[in-house]
Design a protein that fits this description.
about 525 residues; 3-stranded antiparallel β-sheet; 8-stranded parallel barrel; binds 3-methyl-2-oxobutanoic acid; Recoverin, domain 1; 3 domains; TIM Barrel; globular; Double Stranded RNA Binding Domain; binds zinc ion
Length: about 525
């Protein structure tokens, strides 16, 4: 069986897309989950894009062991030098340098001739190799590049020392048959290509990213670039969990395997969702809530007779447990940490204490605590930012057809030992909380997006709130969890103001959106 390398770009292509930006702490959380998943390469960012990106790549390189850490850069010398500097602490480092090769990009974006693009590619790879043994070259918009020219550029990059050549479908335009044909053609027409790893990087504009990546593999690609939950520019990238499970479930067909520990897929996907404040859709392949649910009577009957009637994968293969009923208020630390481990989470000792505190609080209010409750506590805790403010008291009055507006009274405690109380009015209870928080913190808060869902079952089910808001002109995300949905919104807002306070303290901005590719 052929080994396929999994190159994860959640923290680069994924993070640069709107609504998915992450703070440094959040990136490190996701990077740890990726290392636990055993991906081969983590693309940690684009160091030349901003000081925040540089710092994130350097910190991931310093703290994450196991996978190779890659940094993206254009073929421009100062970009390559920044990438090399950010990667200095890495155990295993890769410089990933790229230049666009298609006619439209050459003319409209780069204003370069073919010869200039070719020279830039060679010079970039040569310079990158002077810093790092492991260099990947990408021909951006390769799919729309003239074949002969693409072959020429790839050959030159290989001769200059690239060990991996990436053929991206930057605009998500290709089809599986075209991919198969192109990769097969390149294998026949690029001297030296058999000595390097051929990589595929597909965008999902036509919903074909996974199918196109698999077609590239069938034609000989040895690396797939992908992202958790398929996040990435526009419609996203090839979804890591889908492509990994396709290769695993149909290994007989593809005759290929990856080193990914598929039992961690659910954990990593849901952690990313909590960190970025974007729920995983219910019907999402592999990691959605419905992926292993069987509602229709005829399906249930078949499942009871034999799970194989309707199930091509076992839920436990992706980290979803059979039994959903978990713990109660008498469950201790061991039971909780064992259950968390079974669900794919590794809890540090300090983290376990905080999860226990929240677990006990919940178990006091709720008869039965389900796996999904525990997962929400853990991912919420891992995604959260500790900041100066905590919620001490909240009282909200909601009115329909009343004379007066809804009101919210909020008391916050500050880490300096003081407390502050304000009452706000608004169009609705959340708006009233926003005004109370503005009164306390002096911040200007504008809610941009609010999504709610209920976790697990029953009338005492928890509500989860994901919110994005602009605070003093910058965007932040927040996540809240409570059996009271208004309190869950208040918690999400609190996380947002804590994040904004921390950044104001550090004097820098929310991670800038790099505009690489
Ligand atoms: O989509 C793309 O072409 C990219 C490259 C920089 C690899 O993201
Ligand atoms: Zn891309």
């Amino acid at each position: 069986m052929r080994d396929i390398k999994i190159f994860d770009t959640t923290l680069r292509d994924g993070e640069q897309s709107p609504g998915f930006s992450m703070s440094l702490g959040q990136k490190l959380r996701v990077a740890r989950a990726l290392a636990e998943l055993q991906v081969d390469i983590i693309e940690a960012g684009f160091p030349a894009a901003s000081p925040g990106d540089f710092e994130s790549v350097a910190e991931v390189a310093r703290q994450i062991e196991g996978p190779t850490i890659a940094a993206l850069c254009r073929t421009v010398p100062k970009d390559i030098e920044r990438a090399a500097a950010a990667l200095e602490p890495a155990g295993k480092a890769r410089i990933h340098t790229f230049i666009a090769t298609s006619p439209i990009h050459r003319k409209e974006k780069l204003a370069m001739s073919r010869a200039e693009v070719l020279k830039n590619a060679v010079d970039g790879v040569t310079l990158a190799r002077s810093f790092c043994e492991d260099v990947e070259f990408s021909a951006e918009d390769a799919i729309r590049t003239e074949r002969q020219f693409l072959a020429e550029v790839l050959q030159a990059a290989i001769e200059a020392g690239a060990g991996t050549v990436n053929i991206p479908d930057t605009v998500g335009y290709s089809t599986p048959r075209e991919m198969f044909d192109l990769f097969g053609w390149l294998k026949q027409n690029v001297p030296g290509i058999d000595d390097v790893v051929i990589s595929t990087h597909c965008h999902n504009d036509l919903g074909l990213a996974v199918a196109n990546s698999l077609a590239a593999v069938e034609a000989g690609a040895g690396q797939i670039e992908c992202a958790l939950n398929g996040i990435g520019e526009r419609a996203g990238n090839c979804a890591l969990e889908e492509v990994v499970m396709a290769l695993r479930t149909r290994s007989g067909h593809f005759d290929c395997k990856t080193d990914v520990d598929s039992r961690k897929l659910h954990m990593a996907s849901h952690l990313l969702a909590a960190v970025t404040g974007n729920f995983v859709p219910r019907n999402k392949a592999i990691v959605g809530e419905n992926a292993f649910a069987h509602e229709a009577g005829i399906h249930q009957h078949g499942m009871l007779a034999s799970p194989e009637t309707y199930e091509i994968m076992k839920p436990e293969d992706v980290g979803v447990r059979d039994s959903q009923l978990v713990l109660g208020k008498h469950s201790g630390k061991h039971a909780v940490s064992d259950r968390a481990r079974e669900m794919g989470f590794t809890l540090e000792p300090g983290e376990l204490d905080e999860v226990m505190r929240r677990f006990k609080e919940l178990a006091d209010r709720k008869k039965r605590v389900f796996d999904s409750d525990l997962e929400a506590i853990i991912t919420g805790n891992q995604a959260g930012t500790i900041g100066p403010w905590s919620l001490q008291w909240l009282s909200v009055v909601s009115r329909v057809n009343g004379e007066e507006d809804p009101t919210a009274s909020v008391t916050l405690a500050n880490e300096d030992g003081t407390t502050a109380t304000e009452t706000g009015e608004g169009d609705g209870p959340v708006d009233a909380i926003v005004h109370a928080l503005e009164g306390i913190t002096g911040m200007e808060i504008e809610v941009l997006n609010l999504a709610m869902r209920s976790i697990s079952l029953g009338e005492d089910a928890q509500g989860e709130s994901n919110m994005r808001a602009r605070v003093n002109g910058k965007e932040y995300s927040g996540h809240g969890l409570s059996t009271d949905i208004v309190a869950a919104c208040a918690e999400a807002l609190l996380e947002i103001i804590n994040r904004a306070s921390r950044q104001a303290d550090r004097g820098d901005a929310e991670p800038a959106q790099s505009n690489a590719a």
